[in-house]
Amino acid sequence: MDAAFQGVEAPPLPGSDGLSAIEVETDQLWPAYRPGELVYYREAPASPRECNGRDCVVFLTDGSIVIRMFTAAGPNRATLVAFSGPPMLQVEYTAAYPIVWMKRAPVPIGA
């Protein structure tokens, strides 16, 4: 897995039913996502068409979870792109969920 994530509980806010969240624990996704940020997605089946061109939480067949811009590439296959690192071409996935909200990590003053 090229990015580390930890599942966290979604906030009890209006309209948050069915939301799940993961916490970014790596700086490999910078500048789009920083360690400590919470990324929320709705655990409802999303079609490849709904995911195309969007940042998604993607569950890969090897059991890893990544956050990447999603482009469908065939049945249960996608090309996944991030700001850093090479694209993941024609990767097999089990599920992809568009990101619906995120909570930014605090940035220290003077950083």
Name its key features.
Umud Fragment, subunit A, 111 residues, 7-stranded antiparallel sheet, globular, mainly beta
- Ranges where pLDDT stays below 50 over 5 or more residues in a row are none
Shape field: globular
Structurally, the number of domains stands at: 1
Identify the CATH homologous superfamily: Umud Fragment, subunit A
**Percentage of β-strand residues:** over 45%
Q: Please trace the helix and strand order, writing H or E for each element.
A: EEEHEEEE
Number of helical stretches of at least 4 residues? 1
Chart the SSEs and their pairings.
Layout: E1 5-8, E2 19-24, E3 38-42, H1 48-51, E4 55-60, E5 65-72, E6 77-81, E7 88-103
Antiparallel strand pairs: 1-2, 2-3, 3-7, 4-5, 4-7, 5-6, 6-7
Task: Tell me what you see in this structure.
With 111 residues, this protein is mainly β. The protein has one domain: Umud Fragment, subunit A (Ribbon), CATH 2.10.109.10. 4% of the residues lie in helices and 45% in strands. It has one helix and seven strands, in the order E-E-E-H-E-E-E-E. Strands 1, 2, 3, 4, 5, 6 and 7 form a seven-stranded antiparallel β-sheet that branches. The longest helix is centred in the middle third of the chain and has 4 residues, at 48-51. It is globular, with a radius of gyration of 14 Å. The relative contact order is 0.24. The mean pLDDT is 85.
What's the short version?
The protein is mainly β and 111 residues long. The protein contains one helix and seven strands; from the N terminus they run βββαββββ. It has one helix at residues 48-51, and strands spanning 5-8, 19-24, 38-42, 55-60, 65-72, 77-81, 88-103.
